[in-house]
Amino acid sequence: MVIDEKTGLVLEGGGMRGVFTCGVLDYFMDKKIRFPYTIGVSAGACNGLSYMSGQRGRAKFSNIDLLEQYDYIGVKYLFKKRNIMDFDLLFGEFPEHILPYDYDAYFSSPGRYVMVTTNCRTGRANYLEEKKDKKRIIDIVRASSSLPYVCPITYVDDVPMLDGGIVDSIPLLRSMEDGNEKNVVVLTRNRGYRKTSKDMKIPHFIYKKYPRLRVALSNRCKVYNQQLEMVERLEDEGRIHVIRPEKPVVVDRIEKDVNKLRDFYQEGYECAKKMF
Fold this sequence. Notes:
By secondary structure, this protein is of the alpha/beta class. It contains eleven helices and eight strands. α1 crosses α11 and α3 runs antiparallel to α11. The chain is globular and about 50 Å long.
């Protein structure tokens, strides 16, 4: 396919399944494939930042090598920090000291980069961009990655935010609304996958200050399955290109098996290679 000024790159989340996306993006960087517009949600937003700064291998390092070294996921962090992950490491030590993020390269990159969060007050997606303020970038990507129930609410511009995947796990429609007539969508699930769990009404004592957030959480599975159906329909019509795993995924959202993660990263790299 030919990438022109109206081509968008859409990055799904999926927690640790995002290592598939890391493989895709590293292939893009190896082949100097750049998009004028990229939009990412949750893990896709995190991995997309390294793509935007051109730091090949950085996202893989954070998802695999850093996990192997620091074991930053687990119930122990829920007791210590009220968070299933060590966000102080991931959004503090890592970008500032361990493998510093190249903010200058990101600020000077010509493409637009959009990160998706969920506004707790409205229960709707917020689509945020930032190319000047380092702190606001970290606030946005941290909010986009803050899973409901197991991560604390993050504030961006004094607005309470959570994981963008609550309401827009695959922000393809937003890319189209922003003028992109062609889109490459990177998914972290195989074709035909659907959530089988049933949506349930969220009790009033959970997020009691945010009733619209509870409504969004109560419709999460239905909305995600509708998005998957839309993606497959547009793909069959030849209107979008999709890069996704070719077989059922064995990597969990909070996967800690680094061998599985390495294999899934490599699968992402090979799937991108096949398309391009």
